[in-house]
Fold:
Amino acid sequence: MSVQPSAPPSKNEVLKQNDPTLGGTLGETMADSTLACFSSDDEQFLKFHGIYQQDDRDRRKTGKQYIMMIRARIPGGLIPPDQYLAFDDLSERYGNQTLRITSRQSFQWHGVVKDKLGPLMKGLNDALCTTIAACGDVARNVMAPSTPAMSALAERVLEDARRVDAAVKPQTAAYHSIWIDGEPLKLSPEGKQAFEDPLYGKTYLPRKFKIAFALPPLNDTDVFTNCLGFVAIPDPAEPSRVLGYNVLVGGGLGMSHGNKETFPRTADVLGFIAPEEIVAVTKAVLTAYRDSGDRTNRKHARLKYVIEELGVDWFRAEVEQRAGFKLAPARPMDFTHQGDRFGWHQQSDGRWFLGLYVETGRIKDVPQRQLKTALRRVVAKFRPEVRLTPSQNLLLAGLTAAQKAGLTALLAEHGIPVENQAGAIRRASMACPSMPTCGLGLAESERALPGILDSLETVLAELGLSDEEIIIRMTGCPNGCARPYMAEIGFVGKAPGKYNLYLGGNAGTTRLNREYRASVKTEDLSKELRPLLTRWKNERRSGERFGDFCSRTVLPEQIPVGAAGDAAPTTLSPAAPLS
Ligand code: SRM
Ligand code: SF4
Structure:
């Protein structure tokens, strides 16, 4: 069965069919120094190599200035110190001197012009990092919980995530040939067409595919927003051991304004499996999607539409048949919070980690705060492991008690505090890049959120609510890259300077929020929120969060299109019921 209508395959499908090695003419374009950019067909192949061709939108008036964005594959966001230093160096030499932590625990290098692309890619390979399948119609970087990744249990979950990540990497030799050997893949057109990836086949997946692991009660990976989620269930007899995983399928957030066929959706619970079964189940889910997704319309091609239309029972049967075993009933799970821990915390092995807030994920130097320089010096001197979080922050881990004071002092030299790093709403906020690099942005995001938070902080201070955490996320368009539909307050770009305002997510990010107002001007966002925040202060139930208050009182009837509201059935997740 499939959700595919009888219509011709999309252009991307034809491209993949014609060159399953995914090499296109990338090698030839790289070898031709007179070319400043890649062809539009090659732009599609580039994505499978972790590269996006963009142009600087701030400079469009003077003609298109082509720049590339390169995204690494960093499963679980784990970066050894030498690798971090190499990443930093590459951003200085070949990028725009910033490193961007993504909402899926990875790094992006922005502003890379074509003649710097080769050295950057080679440098990443020398640093033992790949960018393969960081984008494209394949399984992307696998996420794993980072903040508690300081216990034996969490380390086991991280290991499992890395195992799954390794199992879903495409096998094409084109990546190595173009970026490491520096030459096109030496195959005839027939030879190229004959290539078939052992997992993905000739035409890969209908669309991108996202996998995340979570360890309740923390839902830092927003696991219900993924195509495939694994929720770790500890063994009650031996709590440092993973008993197994609840399997979730069919989450995804991207939608288009005005197109009701597209919608954000939280995942369904498929069942429970043993840890040894995760790779088999991953491959079964992935191939079931490969064979049932829509390859005619890319707006309807994600796994969430397969599950929505063919049903979770059909999908479970398909997965069981492919995996060769049955899934057990899901175990109880309860997510109570998301986000990161900031400041110094002791790990279960006695060492320490430092959680650092990174505004909108951008590691850069500004006059009062030289975060990039500070991190470079700290990593070189104290050699912590760097862990990127799904909320665009980072942890410096594996440090001794004796290193704490020196490290804190070095950060302070560069204007980076360890205590009180940012206010409560800022610490729980995220924004996507949008302008000037994202070609799909309709409104500012990363550059606008800090100012909007300034005015909201003023309102909250006036109301005596400064210490209250509210999860606020912003994106420059409805694609949902900073997962705004799970936030208590979501700002979604509609047009330059205008945002749709979403309200009603919960602390454990298991519930979709709902649209409250459309096309609110940037300067009116905090004005729009003030009366609601005032009502919340005066009418809230004891300890009630803003998102729960809005869900209960402001928007009680509106249920998002195509979604069940609360992701997990209440028997599994009692977090913040809609009442
Ligand atoms: Fe995203 C496209 C940035 C996470 C849904 N995303 C893009 C592109 C590549 C724009 C493009 O296609 O030309 C953006 C590059 C901007 C730039 O200049 O850097 C972009 N997405 C990002 C990142 C960097 C945002 C961030 O704030 O960190 C995230 C990179 C994650 C990573 O390391 O892999 C990022 N994108 C997400 C997420 C969140 C998640 O996966 O947890 C989503 C929503 C979940 C989902 O997939 O449904 C997301 N991005 C999209 C979509 C909508 C897909 C859809 O189903 O409709 C697009 C558009 C597309 O694919 O056509 C998109
Ligand atoms: Fe670009 Fe839209 Fe994603 Fe923001 S949400 S990075 S504007 S695609």
Confidence is low (pLDDT under 50) at residues 559-565, 568-579. DSSP finds 17 helices and 21 strands in the chain.
